[in-house]
Design a protein that fits this description.
With 681 residues, the chain is mainly alpha-helical. Among the domains are: 182 residues, Methane Monooxygenase Hydroxylase, Chain G, domain 1 (Up-down Bundle); 39 residues; 61 residues, Herpes Virus-1 (2-Layer Sandwich), CATH 3.30.40.10. Helices cover 75% and strands 2% of the residues. Strands 1-2 form a two-stranded antiparallel ribbon. It has a two-stranded antiparallel ribbon with strand order 3-4. A two-stranded antiparallel ribbon has the order 5-6. A hairpin with a 6-residue loop joins strand 3 and strand 4. It starts with 15 loop residues before the first helix and ends with a helix. 11% of the residues are buried. The N terminus is likely disordered. Keywords: Coiled coil, Endocytosis, Endosome, Lipid-binding, Membrane, Metal-binding, Phosphoprotein, Protein transport, Transport, Zinc, Zinc-finger.
Length: 681
């Protein structure tokens, strides 16, 4: 078995004084780092002790001592001081947890898991901060006090948090509100939006007042400070798995051991120096291995680049062939496009001339039709006016007729009333005659009464004469009214006949106008159909022109693709040239680094010097490990100074310290040959 020996420069090995100085500097740095943490931890413990003492005092006072009225203010002040101390303690613990979490995450340089202790302690402290000053809500089951209630408000205030709420609700393992709140915090930290969501809550303190007391941490300035500290956690990448963890039954206890560091002893410093030397040795070994790996990787890359270069050349040849075929197609398409354009231009010109002629004829016919239509429309308006006037006259005649009928009815009523009065007067006359007869019989008895009666009779006769003259006058009036009624009836009949004749004439004219309108409508329909056919032809020609335009655009796109392919070809050629130059430079750097490493090794050998083993110290061959005997003799290697058997040291080479070729072991022989070959190259 062959052993690889690696030589370390003496300058790289630290001295004892340097190790001591390094140990002192490390101790000083650790003291600087741990001093503020220790002071903060002491303050937190003292504040916690004071807060617990005050709480016990207040409990004892509430439970057993009857307080007077004057002690209410003191109790309130003690409660306020207690809450202020709790807020200060929680804020200090949050600062510590965030600081340790960021420092540990940056030192690790990777994504954090849920098992990382500083991350667990951060969530515990944050949970205590969110629980501070929560109001107790009474339900049918009992009292409920969880911090998931205010976190649910974030979904309403910030719609981006709806994904977190839905994913938390869909987790079947979570059965309590505390578990849901912890899962919500995990997801918000993974999204790097925990500080933003809590800031949204603090901006809406009127909604938080439903869940928190007025002196709670989230309602005071300490909440804003904590949100500002949480912004620094956006640097950390966390990958937390929620499926396998039992978030409902976790106990949130703060572990202060993470924030306290003990100083190391002097013995540990010495061990640290030895470990530093060993670490340097391992570092050099890893460097050598890394260089060998990089050489192999570079060779692989060179092979890959050669393969890719050959592939790119093949693709370039294919692309050039394709470009030639595309250029031929482009020329053919150009010729076809020119032919199509000429045909389309000719067809467009012919159609334009036809359309112009048709439009002129259409305009002339339309003008004649418009004139005819305007004349007919004027005649219609005049006839409508005449018809309205006749209807008005008819209405007036009908009104006169109704008035005459009403007047006749009134006259008939007057005549009937007068006839009744005549009948009554005749009856009165008969009664008067009877009375006169009786009075005549009685006149003989009393002359005085006769004279009076004769006077009364004379007066009655005068009245009867007046009544008779009035009756004659009324009869004459009746005769005149009947004559006027007959004349009015004759006039009405004449007017009806005239109106009927005029209506017949109007109907005939209306029928003629309707026939003219129907003919005009037919002509308009035919013209519309002709216009639609013309429009269809125009649309077809437009479609043909659009197709030609699309073909032109496709030709332009093919030209652009050709230009892009040419640009890509030039870029690929540039990349190939740059990669070849880079490979040449890498090869030069590698050869230079190998020469430098060999020179460093030679210098180290010259500085260190080979240890010449004594014959008594070696009992076995260093290479094959066979025991020396009388037949198997000992031989020194003139390069490394170790003892080998004849078979393992049968090689001879010329060394700079010896004038003639000297015995060398197999390992030194191979190393020296490789060095000579590299120097010659």
């Amino acid at each position: 078995q062959k052993e690889d020996f690696e030589i370390i420069d003496k300058n790289l090995i630290p001295n004892a004084t340097e190790l001591k100085n390094e140990g002192k500097e490390k101790a000083a740095e650790e003291a600087r780092w741990s001093a503020p943490i220790l002071s903060l931890a002491k303050k937190a413990s003292e504040n916690l002790a004071l807060s617990y003492g005050n709480a016990l005092k207040s409990a004892s006072l509430v439970g057993f001592i009857s307080k007077p009225v004057s002690n209410d203010n003191t109790a309130k002040t003690t409660v306020r001081c207690h809450t202020m101390e709790e807020r200060a303690n929680l804020m200090n613990m949050m600062k510590l947890s965030i600081k340790t979490l960021i420092q540990s995450a940056l030192s690790l340089g990777r994504t954090l898991d849920s098992d990382f202790p500083p991350l667990q302690q951060f969530f515990v402290v944050l949970e205590h901060c969110l629980k501070h000053g929560l109001k107790v809500k009474k339900t049918f089951i009992g009292q409920n006090k969880s911090f998931f209630g205010p976190l649910e408000l974030v979904e309403k205030l910030c719609p981006e948090a709806s994904d977190i709420a839905t994913s938390v609700k869909n987790l079947p393992e979570l059965k309590t509100a505390v578990g849901r709140g912890r899962a919500w915090l995990y997801l918000a930290l993974m999204q790097k939006k925990l500080a933003d969501y809590l800031k949204v809550l603090l901006d809406n303190k009127h909604l938080l007042s439903e869940f928190y007391e007025p002196d709670a941490l989230m309602m005071e300035e300490e909440g804003a400070v904590i949100v500002g500290l949480l912004v620094g956690l956006n640097v950390i990448d966390a990958n937390l798995c929620l499926k396998g963890e039992d978030l409902d039954s976790q106990v949130g206890v703060i572990d202060f051991s993470l924030y306290l560091k003990e100083t190391q002893d002097s013995d540990g410093k010495q061990d640290g120096g030895i470990t530093a030397v060993l670490d340097q040795k391992h570092y050099v070994e890893e460097l050598n291995r890394h260089l060998s790996c990089t050489v192999a990787d570079l060779q692989n890359k060179i092979d890959c680049l050669e393969k890719t270069n050959s592939k790119l050349q093949e693709e370039l040849t294919a692309a050039t062939d394709r470009i030639g075929s595309l250029q031929e197609e482009q020329q053919q398409l150009k010729q076809q496009n020119e032919l199509i354009r000429e045909r389309s231009e000719k067809s467009v010109e012919v159609t334009k001339e036809d359309t112009k002629v048709e439009l002129d004829t259409y305009k002339q016919s339309r003008q004649g039709l418009d004139e005819m239509y305007s004349d007919v429309w004027k005649q219609l308006k005049e006839e409508k006016k005449i018809r309205l006037e006749l209807e008005k006259e008819l209405e007036l005649q009908i009104g006169m007729k109704t008035e005459m009928e009403i007047a006749m009815k009134l006259l008939e009523k007057d005549t009937h009333e007068k006839q009744d009065t005549l009948v009554a007067l005749r009856q009165q006359l008969e009664e008067v005659k009877a009375i006169n007869l009786q009075m005549f019989h009685k006149s003989q008895n009393a002359e005085c009464s006769l004279q009076q009666k004769t006077e009364a009779i004379s007066s009655f006769e005068g009245k009867t004469n007046e009544m008779m003259s009035a009756m004659k006058q009324m009869e004459e009036r009746l005769q005149h009214a009947e004559k006027a009624r007959q004349a009015a009836e004759e006039r009405c009949n004449k007017m009806k006949q005239e109106l009927a004749g005029r209506l017949d004439i109007c109907r005939q004219q209306m029928s003629q106008l309707d026939s003219k309108c129907s003919t005009l409508e037919k002509e308009l329909k035919s013209e519309k159909e002709q216009r639609q056919t013309l429009q269809r032809e125009l649309h077809q020609e437009k479609d043909n022109t659009t197709l030609l335009k699309t073909e032109l655009q496709q030709m332009e796109g093919l030209k652009k693709e050709l230009r892009k392919l040419q640009d890509e070809k030039q870029q690929l050629e540039k990349i190939c040239e740059e990669q070849e130059q880079a490979l040449q430079e890498m090869g030069l750097h590698l050869s230079q680094s190998k020469l430098k490493m060999e020179d460093i090794k030679e210098v180290n050998k010259a500085l260190k010097g080979h240890t010449w083993l004594k014959d008594d110290e070696a009992t076995h061959c260093k290479q094959c490990e066979k025991e020396f005997s009388i037949s198997r003799r000992k031989h020194h290697c003139r390069n490394c100074g170790d003892i080998f058997c004849n078979t393992c040291s049968s090689n001879e080479l010329a060394l700079p310290s010896y004038p003639k070729p000297v015995r060398v072991c197999d390992t030194c022989h191979t190393l020296l040959l490789q060095r000579c070959s590299s120097n010659s190259s």
